Amino acid sequence: MGYLGFIFASSPTRPTTTHHVEPDLTTLYAPKKPVARLPKPPSVPVPMEIVMTILEAAYEDESLPAYNALLKNCALVCKDWSSIAQKLVFRNVTLNTQTAAIAFLQAADRATPRGRVLGDAVVRMKVVLDQNQPYRLSHRSFARAVALCPNLYELSVALYGAGAPGMDIVGLPDASRMKRSAPSFDERTLAILRAGPQISALQFSNWSDNSSSLLQLLDVWPSLEYLDISGTTPQLENDNAEPFPCRLRELRTNFQSSPSMEFMRWLLHNSTGTLRVLDLAREPTPDMLEYLVSVHGATLESLALPTCGTHEAAAAVRRCAALRELKIEGAWASPMLYKAPPGGLQHLAFGVDSDTALQPVIQAIRKSDELRAVTMHVWHGGERHPQMNVVKAACALKGIELRLTKDVPAFRSMTRGDPVPTATYPRIRSLDNLLYMASRASTTH
Fold it and tell me: Between vectors from CA 118 to CA 55 and to CA 194, what angle results, nearest 5°?
């Protein structure tokens, strides 16, 4: 046997024993002394008045959908927050379909305490009566929804006529849309509306061939102070009709054609001495403007016209000595209009393009002592107007707020406020105005 064989020679076989070992990785420590824990202090809930104030402070009328989305999320926090958020959501109600109306009628059912709270919270309501919709909101459901809201202040109604089969095409001209038929309100519907709240503000947009619907609604609410009507030009059904009884503070019109002198005289018969705001989206005839200024010009505080390009029109406007707000949407106005602005003018709004004569405007800004804001609708190269920087400098020197926009709807929105009395212009949309509407509606019932 060699050397290596000696070393690695197999040893004799021996019996082996198997041991099963389970490792224990647990480390043993000395017992710890128990820790004395202090009792948890009771949670103090946030007072609901503070929650209400915070949620109200988030209100912005210009972004109402976003505000409602916020309130819906807040309603998921807890039961107390849910009741507050729901009440705030119901301040502004929109009903577009019969499905929405049924849900609202169930939620605001005055047979239940919760329904009375939600119905009392409604201050503004917007309804769409569209004959083209397969599940359209019915007239009767519309009236019942209004009747459930005793504190309703402002109502907006949009009426769309039914198009012929296959002719309901999106984008048709307004003239075609207004040839569509729509039914009038029946006596039962009118009776329900009369038994409901006496609203203060009505906005009615008529896109049908039914010219009697507006007159029906005007007959329902003798309490109206603010009226905004557009679409189909209304016509009096009877030349001997009794004058409209309301004493309006504000009138806005946007008809497809100029209304008759007889209609305007009928509408504003009892508003002499009370009319403060007049907004005409369509240029009035010289005779119409002369009538409006001669009868109502002494009390007008705000006047809006699409254009004012003639010396006669400018002379008529200058006779409105109490104006605090003047709005000319078009980019051209007679220079005579700005030569001697009213001493109490607080807001001036006008359109600007590359050819607008701005020098008279600049002189009016420099001479004015009460002017608080200037709003300009910039279009057709107006931003490159050689005197644009002069206007900005004149406003900055006098501490006047300058607001610019290139969008017509934005211009109109910026120069229109809530339908409430005001002593300063431009008017705004705010939470304070909404609270005023709610309080005013509550005191009239």
Answer: 130
